[in-house]
Recover the amino acids of this structure.
């Protein structure tokens, strides 16, 4: 697998990403099943002077699920959500104060299953540079940014072993600036990197 470095520009993403997403496929490490709980995360790209940045969060330590872990803003689909894009937007507003008007949705990456029985739809979007983000103190310990170029460099990934069903299993991990990104978040980043590699640069 060859990942792109440097990643595409904002205009290249606007021009090519929607069509490229329609034809992009990815085999998740965990099988997709109907009984899994639908969920969505926002893979938000924030334009900065030094390049596109991914917006990630660190969950608070007291949460019941995935306490202290690094994740995209997102969560399970609720009955009132019009769809999984709506789920990602609602959760992003609740967790990091992101307004829908500051989000330009490009489309959805393939579903990603987790061993915790979720079926996650990653919603890829460009965020307005002026978007004001505010962490919900109950759910989010901090909001931080990861350079898209860093996440698109396959040399930055490593294998992380976890105990699963009586044995060891390797899953992707991405150490970054003293933080350890692993599990579904690292897997979605790895999928994103593979997707970015196919975006035309012209």
């Amino acid at each position: 697998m060859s990942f792109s470095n440097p990643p595409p520009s904002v205009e290249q993403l606007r021009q090519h990403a929607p069509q490229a997403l329609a034809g992009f496929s990815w085999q998740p490490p965990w099988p997709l099943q109907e009984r899994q709980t639908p969920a969505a995360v926002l893979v938000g790209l924030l334009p900065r002077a030094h390049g596109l940045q991914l917006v990630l969060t660190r969950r608070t330590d007291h949460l019941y699920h995935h306490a202290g872990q690094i994740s995209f803003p997102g969560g399970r689909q609720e009955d009132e959500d019009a769809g999984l894009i709506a789920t990602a937007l609602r959760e992003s507003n609740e967790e990091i104060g992101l307004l829908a008007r500051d989000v330009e949705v490009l489309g959805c990456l393939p579903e990603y299953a987790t061993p915790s029985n979720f079926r996650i739809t990653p919603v890829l979007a460009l965020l307005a540079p002026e978007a004001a983000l505010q962490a919900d103190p109950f759910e989010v310990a901090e909001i931080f940014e990861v350079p898209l170029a860093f996440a698109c460099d396959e040399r930055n990934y490593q294998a992380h072993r976890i105990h699963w069903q009586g044995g060891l299993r390797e899953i992707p991990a991405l150490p970054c600036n003293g933080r350890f990104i692993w599990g579904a978040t690292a897997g979605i980043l790895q999928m994103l990197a593979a997707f970015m590699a196919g975006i035309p640069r012209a």
Notes: The chain is about 20% helix and 35% strand. The helical segments are 10-22, 84-96, 148-151, 183-197. Residues 183-197 form the longest helix (15 residues). The first strand starts at residue 37 and ends at 48.
